[in-house]
Amino acid sequence: MAQQQQISLPAKLINGGVAGIVGVTCVFPIDLAKTRLQNQRSGQQIYKNIQNIFDVFKAIKLAANDFFRHQLSKDGKLTVFKEMLAGCCAGMCQVTVTTPMEMLKIQMQDAGRITAQQRVMPSVVTTLKMGGTSAVLCRSYNTNPAPQVMRLSATQITRELLKTKGFLGLYKGLGATLMRDIPFSVIYFPLFAHLHQLGKPSPEESVPFYWSFMSGCLAGCVAAVAVSPCDVVKTRLQSLKKGANEETYNGIVDCVRKILKKEGPGAFLKGASCRALVIAPLFGIAQVIYFVGVGEILLGYTPHSIYSS
């Protein structure tokens, strides 16, 4: 059984890294739209595209899930419960590494929205009616060119966070990130494994690459939509700079309560379609590259997958 083969964790990490680079390069524009939609504003892009390379580290969950599935399958059949447990462990491993990077990414993606809002400065002017004494209030906007805004970098944001919030400031929203990524992994990995297995022509043959892609897309889409409310809460909590009249939140419960009260239940699905469009191709592409076995080839091993048993 392939499940009993010894896996190479370094090779799996290389696979995940390569898969992440290709995947995030393809879906970056949609991920930007998702963040903007969840924060309910639009603005001008003033960030560097290199920020989304942070998402490469999300691919750590692919290697971690492979590792935990292998360990849990040593004492017998890999049940659905064990598959979910492996996904849960993989999600926890990922979050410890990626939470600070998610924090930085959201600040950079959301910077344009805040800047654009500041450019439109409403003012109230008083205009006297011709031949009358009554004053009429009307709204006008400052049309002066906005000062040039320095492009943000991850280094600048990190320094500012460390200076003002300390090291723990990089982990703001950790609870919400766990609340999103653990359920995502619990749903995604077992669903992908079973969909992937359906495409196996025979016990001796491997699954076609296009089936791996479709399985990754479908499983990613389902899992992404399922945890979208948690992603909205996470994005709101990790957005440090607020625009005019925007709420501040004191934790997950306060965030959920204020969103429900002021925006209604539908607000928790903001950006859900964009998130599905990000996650589906991201994991579809990642799974294809992951199963090619680039890491095993580079390290001189024979590519294999514990899903192919």
TrEMBL record:
Provide the catalytic activity annotation: L-glutamate(in) + H(+)(in) = L-glutamate(out) + H(+)(out)
| Localization terms from the record | Mitochondrion inner membrane
The organism named in the record is Neogobius melanostomus
Q: Which family does it belong to?
A: Belongs to the mitochondrial carrier (TC 2.A.29) family.
Q: Which PROSITE patterns match?
A: SOLCAR (PS50920)
Q: Which UniProt keywords apply?
A: Membrane, Mitochondrion, Mitochondrion inner membrane, Phosphoprotein, Repeat, Symport, Transmembrane, Transmembrane helix, Transport
Q: What does this protein do?
A: Responsible for the transport of glutamate from the cytosol into the mitochondrial matrix with the concomitant import of a proton (symport system).
Q: Where are the transmembrane segments?
A: 13-33, 209-233, 276-301
UniProt xrefs under InterPro entries: MCP (IPR002067), MCP_dom_sf (IPR023395), MCP_transmembrane (IPR018108), Mito_Solute_Carrier (IPR051028)
Q: Which molecular function term from Gene Ontology is one that the record holds?
A: L-glutamate transmembrane transporter activity
In which ranges do the Solcar repeats occur?
78-198, 207-296
Q: Name one GO biological process term.
A: malate-aspartate shuttle
Know the name of this protein? Mitochondrial glutamate carrier 2
Keyword field contains Repeat: yes
The UniProt entry, under Pfam families, shows: Mito_carr
Q: Topology in the membrane?
A: Multi-pass membrane protein
| This protein's GO CC annotations | mitochondrial inner membrane
